Amino acid sequence: MPEEHGFLGLIRTTDEKDPGEIFRQVASLECVHMHGPEHHSIVPCIMIAAFRNNGGGAGFEAALEAAAERGTQDSENGGEAGFEAALEAAAERGGQDSENGGEAGFEAALEAAAERGGQVPGGVCGSWGTCGAAIGAGIYGSIIADLTPYTDEGWGAVQLLTARSLEKMAAVGGPRCCKRTSRMAIEACVDFTRERYGVEMPLKDYRCTHYAINEECIHGRCPYF
Fold this sequence. Notes:
The protein is an all-alpha fold. It contains 11 helices and no strands. The protein has one domain. It is globular and about 40 Å long.
């Protein structure tokens, strides 16, 4: 994986069930900046790990099989080729699926999340009118639902997940804070996962430890200050 995805080692191996705690650990890594486009991948990768760790891992194998059935649709689906490549790479590991409890499907999902999030440039919250962490939430929802642009079932629910993430962020306002918006996106993902899949994820209260190095910190306006 690219160097900017150095946080994947921690996410890949953690058995932590609380995505907020995984985020706290990831945010403390030297490779993760106070602000930066890596957060666009961090959000979906953390949520995929938490989904697995809370018993939702069977969904990855279903996605793996469904994607294989799509065959040559890669070029038609405008962007699915990268996900298909990740799935095929995982499939090549063959019998490891059953031996590792679905690890091939999990690895494919994790790689797809990192790749898709990595396509979102930094600073889009100010130039595109949408936050990359919210897009990351949508990436998570799209992967566990195995969506394509042509999917009917679940398509609207994932758009709503992204919208709910943005609503949380917009209610607080700017300026940017990748830690604040990532946590908000994670909270929206936890609600989405419970409502749509019945998978409960613990989520402890979060208190920011990064405000001292954030020149744009909004202090008392932030729910995590």
